[in-house]
Amino acid sequence: MDRDKLKKILERYPFVERENLIPILQDIQYEQGYLTEEAVKEVGNYLELPASKIYSVATFYSKFQFQPRGKFHIKLCSGTSCHIKGAARLEKKVYNLLNIMDGETSRDGMFSLEIVTCMGGCSLGPVMALNNRYFTEVTEDKLEEIIEDYKENEE
Amino acid sequence: MASFEENTSQYSLIQTVLEGNAGDMDEKEREAVDHIKGDKVTQPVISLSYNTASIVAGADETFNAIRDYLEERDIDARLNVIGSLGLITAEPLMDVQLPGKARVTFSNVFPEKVSDILDAVFNNIIPKEYVLGQHPTDLHEPWENIAYVNELPFFQTQKRLILKNCGRINPGSIDEYVVHGGYRSFLMAIRNYTPEEVCTLVEDSGLRGRGGEGYPTGKKWKTTLNAPAEKRFLICNAGESDPGAFMERMIMEGDPHSLVEAVAIASYAIGAQKAYIYLESEYEMACRRLQNAIDQARDYGLLGHDIFSSGFNLNIQLHQGAGAYVCGEETALIASIEGKRGMPRPKPPYPSHRGLHNQPTVVNNMETLLNVPVIVRYGAARYKQTGTDKSPGTKVFSVSGKIERSGLVEIPMGVSLREVVYKIGGGVPDNKGLKGLLLGGPAGGALTYDHLNTRIDYEELKQLGCTLGSGAVVVMDEHTCILDTVKYYMHLLEEESCGKCIPCREGTRRMHEILENITKRPEEENGSFTLHRFKGVINLERLAHVVQDTSLCGLGQRAANPVLSTISAFRQEYEEHIFERKCRAGVCQELSTFYIDVDQCTGCTICAQKCPTGAIVGSAKKPHFIVQERCIGCAICYESCKFGAIIRK
């Protein structure tokens, strides 16, 4: 991430307060998709906190990422309703197909997986999203089809 | 999509309405108010329910279809966005109101239906196959032979105090909120009452915290108000990360101003000049709409310095969570806002004395706060008429799972669960039997069919070892395995335990392990595996009690609830899994055994090709067999067989 962008984010928080730490990290992640070492150090300088403290906070929360997201970001709902309707098997299926687990990105940088708590489609579960497209009542076969589709279109 | 959510504001007009100088309004202004309110309709108004639930169901495409329809035919109509009415099974919902006619709601409006519906409506015909119902009205002419929405089974039992605006008004417009009576309670509070009086009013109303244990809200507020300090803070916990709960998100998406108003009143009552609303960053649309509501309220002078010349200052800040379930616990939430790891600390000192930045702080659940404007508006006595003696008011639930109609439901306290499941929810689909309910997410508990007559009330549920918790009601049918569900909850709790205290960190992990062992295919029947398994089984209940008694915070204390409540409610199923290694629902795959029906098998070899362990043997065009010793129960053969030759036992 270039320094100007980071500077602009930091300028939004004129007060050096620890309270601003999580919002700043969220802004950085929103801009570049994940947290880089340089950005963390820079934030540390700004908030007068050691980088270790920042990592300790950032790793505690599940939404912070330390590697870039894939070109296609898969979100799988793991809400109770989706689970009852068979969402857990979809996670396994993604692992079998792409060899990635929650929070990971495939080696070629094409796909990444995120398990989310609820996407609000409880009556239509299991729900998944690929970038911003939603798929409802997803079965293992449908999941495979979707992923194959995206792979093919890419090639 | 930006222009779709935008709204023009009528600042001076709304100021007049807020100031209560209705007498000073001229004819034109009065007309404008009627117009915003929807009492006067001069052009067709098409409102699309636009929120997370409807987007999942395809509202974006529906919106485009409506816009194209209007553009192609050059129809002058207003396209409006509304929140969700709560019936998410029927999303995307579309409301159409023609001049002089009652507003009609259509359900499951997918793009291909748009032109059918609108063609008919513009010709004054209501296509019955798509309609949900019409809204009752005195000002407009009702449609003939069309059911009223509030008389539908889903809505009939409900009493909508908190949800009254959801699905009715544009969540992006402060004007619409104000003309529907919004911010009146807040202005009434800061003008007519002292903070002390507001606290007393809430205390008299008997309002209890909706987050879990049901602590009296007024009492909590008074403690904070009376604690000596320079600063006080209000924190609204709107971060529901409970799986299966979605009502807070839907309220924030459908009626964000009501939350802003509720937070404002509560802040005034406890003498706080800064309030935080904590919600998950995952809820992008809720965040956006809430921030928009806060900004609008500030522009209108409802937040900020010296609000409406009352001398009260208030600043509301949105704090986005970064994904930690434990932050539902108040001390962890405070740590998270301070920019630290969200770990709870022992209580006392309670946050009412030493909370955020060591100042007195009230942490309230969002739903609790939403009751406050209602109480201020109607008074404690009238509020108490709803609900039961000890639990007045209403409760919002999100009903989902194996149920006909899932959605957002608000009912008076004291209504039985049977009514929620069968009358409002329409029962279990496909004529399957109801097995039980999961109430209140991972921290809640399970109830069986026999408990359905339980009334929704803090005390009655507590007797059964359940709490209202997050308000999630997940319905299970006979094809749901109870152990699988508990395992799922335990897995979640194990992952989300902050790890600070040992009983919770190790206990949840161990309980999860034991459940895994129960549902696992035995590796060797005679070795240490069986011993290990039974040791776990014997200790499971005791372990659960220890975790319950010794954990530091609510997450750990309630982590045992799923185990304990399901053992007491579904003991037989546990025993079947343990002793007979049988899963009656067929969900625990490793416990099923597979056989090939020799008569049905055509020898197509598909199963043999797909079997990951090579457990299926046989030659082409002849019946195959499964070598049980090699089978891992993955069910791939069962799913891939096109002839139904594989039998699961």
Please tell me how large the radius of gyration of chain A is.
18 Å
Oligomeric state of shown chains: heterodimer
Structural class of chain B: alpha/beta
Stretches of chain B where pLDDT is under 50 for at least 5 consecutive residues are none
Number of DSSP E strands of chain B: 18
Mean pLDDT of chain A: 88
Q: Order of SSEs of chain A, N→C?
A: HHHHEHHEEEH
List the strand order in the largest sheet of chain B. 2-1-3-4-5
Could you please describe the fold and organization of this structure?
The complex is a heterodimer of chains A (155) and B (649). Chain A is of the alpha+beta class and 155 residues long. Chain A has helices at residues 3-11, 21-32, 37-47, 51-60, 80-84, 87-98, 140-154, and strands at residues 72-77, 111-116, 128-130, 133-135. Chain A has seven helices and four strands; from the N terminus they run H-H-H-H-E-H-H-E-E-E-H. In chain A, a hairpin with a 2-residue loop joins strand 3 (128-130) and strand 4 (133-135). The longest helix of chain A has 15 residues, at 140-154. Chain A is elongated and about 50 Å long. The mean pLDDT of chain A is 88. By secondary structure, chain B is of the alpha/beta class. Chain B has 27 helices and 18 strands. In chain B, strands 2-1-3-4-5 form a five-stranded mixed sheet, covered by helices on one side. Chain B has a five-stranded mixed sheet with strand order 11-10-14-12-13. A four-stranded parallel sheet of chain B has the order 8-7-6-9, with helices on both faces. In chain B, helix 13 (256-270) packs across helix 16. The longest helix of chain B has 23 residues, at 528-550. Chain B starts with a helix and ends with a strand. The model of chain B has no long low-confidence stretch (mean pLDDT 89). Classes of the chains: A alpha+beta (155), B alpha/beta (649). At the A-B interface, helix 2, helix 4 and helix 5 of A face helix 4, strand 8, strand 10 and strand 14 of B.
